[in-house]
Design brief:
single chain, about 220 residues, alpha+beta, Jelly Rolls, seven-stranded antiparallel beta sheet, four-stranded antiparallel beta sheet, about 35% strand, globular, binds 2-oxoglutaric acid, binds manganese (II) ion
Amino acid sequence: MGNQPSLFDEQATDEPEVLIRDDGDVRLYRHWLSGEESRALFYQLEQELAWQQTHIQMHGRRLPVPRLDVWYGDAGHRYRYSGVRFDPRPWSRTLLTLKQALEVRQGLTFNSVLANLYRSGRDSVAWHSDDEPELGRNPVIASISLGAERRFALRHKTRKDLPSVRLDLPDGSLLVMAGATQHHWEHELAKTARAVGPRINLTFRTVFETGPSGL
Ligand SMILES: O=C(O)CCC(=O)C(=O)O
Ligand SMILES: [Mn+2]
């Protein structure tokens, strides 16, 4: 593949670590990208993406989410955030390259991606499941991490016998959440008091909702 040989090299994908197999399916490919690739991708995405401050409506107040984010994807697949529908931006060059690498190396297809930029340890994502109706039943979500290592956690919503999973998501890793994961489990990226650099996370998703009026 021209100037990016290993990004599309199927041999480069190791066996994943299975993090969750009960009531869901979560796998980690620890070294999905080389250090050189992930560094280059971090800087390209930091420059190229139209990072914005999203606000949510909570208890009648308009609050900024603790991170920057932006959606990209195929036209006509709207997503919903805090009750409001948005159109994604058209694919950027770098995001399209990564989407194609997921197709070639993992056999996974997506039509959109949510990019998050965690500027420091003060930025975070609170406990949630990616279970919006437009993602359909048992969505497959491919999550690529670039930059600073941050602690990611998953906990079962009801079963106390299943241990929570906590891990630092490495630079260049790919986490795939599939099966019933979003139905039974929730996840977070906690704040940290440690001095950490910025981190970019990309969650590739398939949004089924189409057209201006939605479902
Ligand atoms: O940053 C991460 O690793 C997770 C992000 C996430 O869960 C989300 O945007 O839905
Ligand atoms: Mn999520």
